[in-house]
Amino acid sequence: DIILPKGSLIDTDEFENVTKAVLSNDAEVMGANLPKATVLYFYKSGKLKEVKCNGPQIIDGIKSNEDNEIGFYESGIIKEGELTEDRVFDDIRYHKEECLSFDESGKVNISESGYIQNAELMENKNIQGIVFPKGTLVTFYSSDKIKYAKIGDSIEIQGIKCPKDSLIWFYKSGRLQSVERMAETKEIQGILCDKVGEISAVNLYESGKLKIASLANNQEIQGIYFSKGTVVYFYESGKLKEINPPEGEKLKFKDSY
After folding, report:
1. pLDDT tens-digit map of 39-48
2. Cys-Cys crosslink for 167: which of 33, 157, 180, 234, Cβ 3.0 to 4.6 Å?
């Protein structure tokens, strides 16, 4: 229960339930010392619904929004706000100044929190059907899907082995988009791809088809001979789109090789 200071102004509904109060003096509410003139709004149950201050306010490590408001579920859980320090929720460490939304149980609602950057997994965690290792840093789209991640330990995704500390990117659908480094050379659609590349080791279409790769050895592709290190670009159909050979290298066609 909230004890209002003597002289606080209150509004009530037709059942004499307090719906609003303006503090006449400083008061402790939800573990925070709220200043005089702070406005409190209540549910019909008498539970705190919202706090509105004349300036920034912090309650339970959550800072008020730009309108200096902090909203609560009837359960007492804060709805959203900016972290004033690093916090761990559901085995994920979120960084100071990250703005988070919460559901009624207190779990982070990633899809409502907007663009979350470099959240750290404190344990192995299954996200979008992939078990990411402890220590992985994940950045989310404005949804519960990962945009990119820095891997905390080696992992295999869609048949591609990624070493510790490599960066991987995903489409909004959750499908793999590109891998910075691979643990080993990998043959994808008949192309032997190098572990590293000029931009990334491999870049895929959302369908999983190869889009960009750096060649791991000399290879013939569609009647053209390419040297190791050549960066090849493909249409989604599999046809060559563009090539970027090593400096000084010339293309060699099959009939003149």
Report:
1. 999 999 999 9
2. 180
State how far the alpha carbon of 173 is from the alpha carbons of 140, 151, 252, in Å: 12, 19, 39
What is the reported pTM? Answer: 0.79
Q: What is the 3-state secondary structure (H, E, C) of the chain?
A: CCCCCCCCEEEECCCCCEEEEECCCCEEECCEEECCCCEEEECCCCCEEEEECCCCCEECCEECCCCCEEEECCCCCECEEEECCCEEECCEEECCCCEEEECCCCCECHHHHCCCCCEEECCCEEECCEEECCCCEEEECCCCCEEEEECCCCEEECCEEECCCCEEEECCCCCEEEECCCCCCEEECCEEECCCCCCCCEEECCCCCEEEEEECCCEEECCEEECCCCEEEECCCCCEEEEECCCCCCCEEHHHC
Spatial distance between the Cα atoms of 41 and 228, rounded to a whole number of angstroms: 68
Is it the case that residue 179 has pLDDT exceeding 80? yes
Query: What span, in angstroms and rounded, lies between the C-alpha atoms of 104 and 37?
Result: 28
Tens-place pLDDT, residues 97-109: 999 999 999 999 9
- Short-list 173, 172, 162, 30, CA closest to 115: 172
Backbone angles phi, psi at 255, to 5 degrees: -75, -5
State the CB neighbour count (10 A cutoff) for residue 149.
25
Residue 109 exposure: Cα atoms within 13 Å on the Cβ side: 13
The one-letter amino acid code at 110 reads I
